[in-house]
Amino acid sequence: MATISKAIIDSNLRNSVFSALNIANVEGFQKVNDRQYGIILTDGNGEERYIRVGAIVAELRKDVSARELMESEIADYNAKQVEKAEKAAARAEKAARDKAAREAKRKEKEGE
What is the value of pTM for the model shown? Predict the structure, then answer.
């Protein structure tokens, strides 16, 4: 029994994704290659920017299913976002403490 090559399978999957997104029919998007579409947009500073939208087909793995891999990547991303938020809150808290300490020191110095 013949099997379909990985290159053809991956290409068909990417085409399915791009078709589902209907990206080829969105004004401004152009096909860059088999894996990407691109568009030129103007950023907030008035500069033209090149944005690529790509489809990456993950490798088949024997130790984890595709669904488990996706769920794992989502969980990793969410955990990192929580960690970033906690670090940002800690930095803001430290900045507030430092500002209060500077103000107290300034007032103490003015009082002398």
Answer: 0.67
